[in-house]
Amino acid sequence: MKHHFAKKRGIYKISRSSSTSFFSVIGWIVVCELVGIVGSIFTVQSIPTWYQTLVKPVFSPPNWLFGPVWTVLYALMGIAVYRIWRLGMKKDQVRHAVILFIMHLALNAIWSPIFFGAQQIPLAFVTIAIMWLTLITIIFRFEKLDKVSALFLVPYLGWISFAMVLNYNFWILNP
After folding, report:
1. Which ranges constitute the DSSP H helices of 47-91?
2. Which of 32, 33, 64, 152 has the greatest CB tally within 10 Å of its CB?
């Protein structure tokens, strides 16, 4: 398996065999989707009970929308981190970007248990605000390594921004 690495105008590129690349990108997508599955365990249990009792903002999307949106976003996240990871974890910039992404993914994984499981709306807001800040940092770091990876995270940034506003409004409406 040959690996080629070159830096051209601040963008790193690497090539691997197509079978290795396929299984690696699938692996990263699965890791990200598993975070969603963990979150959905807490979400699904609370939707028909606690969540139904909350006063919802007028712009709150229908419940059925969250699953498809998150499925697509987690796939895009997996592709984005794969594109960075494939540049080589021996490189400090790459390793730091991937570690920050994994830390962010951990925050993402605990948001649903905090909001839906523990029913701690203010703490969930703090968590999502930290997620938003780390995501901004990740996008800037990814952009320095691979512009396409950064672009793959832009829809996620949009959704997290919306979710943060939604979380805040749940907090205000349900003191």
Report:
1. 52-53, 63-85
2. 32
Span 48-67, pLDDT tens digits = 899 999 999 999 999 999 99
CA distance 149 to 141: 10
C-beta separation of 13 from 5 below 8 A: yes
CATH of the domain at 13: 1.20.1260.100
Helix (H, G, I), strand (E, B) or coil at 15: strand
Tens of pLDDT along 1-56? 444 444 554 555 554 555 578 888 999 999 999 999 998 988 888 988 999 999 99
**From the CA atom positions of the chain, what is the Rg in Å?**
18
Number of domains in the chain: 1
Place of tokens 């690349």: 21
Residues spanned by the domain of 167: 4-173
